[in-house]
Amino acid sequence: MATLGVIADDLTGATDIAIALTSAGHRTAVVLGEGVPIGDAAADADAVVVALKSRTAPVGEAVAASLEALERLRGAGCERFYVKYCSTFDSTPEGNIGPVCEAVLEALEERVTVIAPAFPANGRTVYRGHLFVGDDPLDESPMRHHPLTPMTDSSLSRLLEPQVSRGADDIALVPWPVVSRGAGAVREAVARAREDGARFVVVDAVSDEDLRVLAAATGDLRLLTGGSALAQGLPGPHPTGHRETVLPGGPRVVLSGSASRATQGQVRHALAAGSGLHLAPAALRADFEGSVAGAVDAALRAGTAPFVVYATAAPDHVVDTGDAPLLEEALAEIAVRLVRSGVRALLVAGGETSGAVVGRLGVGPLAVGTEVDPGVAWMLGRAGDGGDLHLMLKSGNFGREDLFVRAWEGVA
Ligand SMILES: Nc1ncnc2c1ncn2[C@@H]1O[C@H](COP(=O)(O)OP(=O)(O)O)[C@@H](O)[C@H]1O
Ligand SMILES: O=C(O)[C@@H](O)C(=O)COP(=O)(O)O
Prior knowledge:
Elements: E1 4-8, H1 11-23, E2 28-32, E3 47-51, H2 59-75, E4 80-84, H3 97-107, E5 113-116, E6 124-127, E7 130-133, E8 136-137, H4 156-160, E9 171-174, H5 176-179, H6 183-195, E10 200-203, H7 208-217, E11 223-226, E12 252-256, H8 261-273, E13 275-278, H9 281-286, H10 288-300, E14 306-310, H11 324-340, E15 345-349, H12 351-361, E16 366-373, E17 376-382, E18 388-394, H13 403-406
Parallel strand pairs: 1-3, 1-4, 2-3, 4-11, 5-10, 5-11, 9-10, 12-14, 12-15, 13-14, 15-18
Antiparallel strand pairs: 2-16, 6-7, 7-8, 16-17, 17-18
Bound molecules: adenosine-5'-diphosphate and the ligand O=C(O)[C@@H](O)C(=O)COP(=O)(O)O.
Adenosine-5'-diphosphate is lined by residues 257-260, 263, 281, 311-312, 317, 319-321, 323-324, 327-328, 350-353, 395-396.
């Protein structure tokens, strides 16, 4: 029976935290979508992650979906909860991180939680309440130009303030000098912040060790919130739940809808090692069926070098976000046809893109397999026909440059 329930605001975020929990010794199931019964997925899992597509939804919808997920997790027996958002705090002045955390906290009748997006292995650290991406403050990183959630400040308190109902009074900071003194000091600081009336306590973390301290200090909180790395400090009952992935033979297809800088490098690298096809919105509008059929045909004939179907041509490519649904629909349709043709492993790049592809594939709960880069692993689910389907769902900014080539090696 699962005891830990996670509400994740997108699909790649859900697999990211499932990897962390699995490494920490939790048998973890990822349940996909809103309203999908948790059912058997919880029976032999210690943790259940509900993957929503709520990051950029209207605030009311995101809150409603998160509360509905909370009720499902409580119904499945979960007693402790975790709201997983992006390690780059992807949100707008309206939300959705603040409103979702506040609604879940209130539904649980709890008085305080922590705000911990840091993911040091991927370069996301928090110091003096400011979020860094590698060497840059968040607002000087490529996230400044994100089409949907441009991050124009690095102060987590300032970002959160307009998102929570009581504003600045609701937010406190536990700075790194306190974290460096260990779990006791952090526990006391969080308790003090709570007595002073704050419900959301931003906690600095520049290393995995800081996050382990934070996890140890917050064992009495029923709700944690953050990126995935804090979850590495939550010990589960098993040494490790990872099931090593053995990929079937067949084409090595990458479906990339991600416009992120890391993905751009990975696409270029994979094109140099294999081949691929650019999916242009104009071509899809002119002949959707022909474009999709051509991509499927070329992918099936590509042999065992990676074949990349990609939406964005270059890092400085100007993206018209109005074309996103068309591209998502095309990539999802290509995925469905490939699986129907017998393809049993697919690598999908991009959070929104992964949500669209997996939604159309109708895949059931996902289990964590081999981790290939921090936060990126092969997942195992069941295709619509009942057969195994291996999926790697990659966050836009995760993974080294050779990921689209390396992902298939050593596990085939
Ligand atoms: N050339 C393009 N024109 C318009 N939209 C695009 C283009 N390339 C990608 N997109 C869209 O941008 C979005 C990227 O989001 P996502 O898949 O979450 O990637 P990431 O994880 O990198 O943010 C998707 O909806 C995708 O369809
Ligand atoms: O925490 C993270 O950075 C990831 O788990 C994540 O949520 C990334 O989102 P996308 O870049 O939109 O895939």
